[in-house]
């Protein structure tokens, strides 16, 4: 019974990882482990005896590994961000390629791209202005995070201070 609960938990982890945009290898590992523990359980039902105990052990192991992977995947700032063809920097309009130093701003359910960290910061510092110029349907609250391509990985950029300043500016205008 406990084993079945743990398997449901593993399936939950898979869904969570998929939602969090986690690297597919984590999802793949958790999925393989879950499938393996379920298959082993089915075999164990027929074999009975110590096989059932071993099945429980494998399920618990799968649960521990899945939890570990979930924590790792969520904590890791690494995400896979797809740069759509023809994306341009919102500040200088240059075409965005997947090269070192390119930055992405996560807003609501999409990404905005910039050819450099400097342009991302400039965009944030003059947020209202750029939103108007680029006719974006955006508010400061939509910003979920910022990322920079560093060593072929998307690393989290701390832009909280700029966003805070923007929010305070807006409040003072009201
Ligand atoms: Zn630019």
Q: How many β-strand runs?
A: 4
Query: Which residues sit in consecutive blocks of at least 5 with pLDDT less than 50?
Result: none
Number of domains: 2
| Small molecules bound | zinc ion
Overall pLDDT confidence = 83
Q: State the shape.
A: elongated
Number of helices: 6
Alpha carbon gyration radius: 22 Å
Assign a percent range to the helix content.
Answer: 55-70%
Strand order of the largest sheet: 2-1-3-4
User: Biggest sheet, open or closed, and with what strands and sense?
Assistant: 4 strands, antiparallel
Helix and strand composition category = alpha+beta
Query: CA-to-CA gap between the ends?
Result: 58 Å
Q: What oligomeric assembly is this protein in?
A: single chain
What is the succession of H and E elements? HHHEEHHEEH
Strand content: 5-15%
């Amino acid at each position: 019974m406990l084993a079945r609960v743990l398997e449901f938990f593993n399936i939950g982890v898979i869904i969570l990882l998929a939602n969090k945009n986690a690297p597919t290898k984590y999802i793949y590992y958790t999925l393989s482990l879950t499938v393996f523990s379920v298959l082993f359980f089915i075999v164990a039902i027929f074999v009975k005896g110590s096989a059932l105990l071993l099945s429980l052990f494998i399920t618990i192991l799968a649960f521990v590994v899945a939890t570990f992977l979930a924590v790792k995947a969520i904590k890791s700032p690494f995400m896979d961000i797809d740069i759509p063809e023809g994306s341009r920097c919102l500040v200088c309009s240059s075409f965005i390629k997947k090269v070192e130093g390119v930055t992405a701003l996560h807003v609501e359910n999409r990404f905005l791209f910039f050819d450099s960290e400097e342009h991302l910061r400039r965009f944030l510092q003059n947020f209202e202005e750029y939103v108007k110029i680029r006719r974006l349907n955006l508010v400061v609250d939509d910003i979920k995070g910022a990322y920079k391509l560093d060593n072929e990985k998307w690393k989290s950029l701390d832009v909280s201070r700029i966003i805070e300043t923007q929010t305070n500016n807006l409040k003072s205008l009201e």
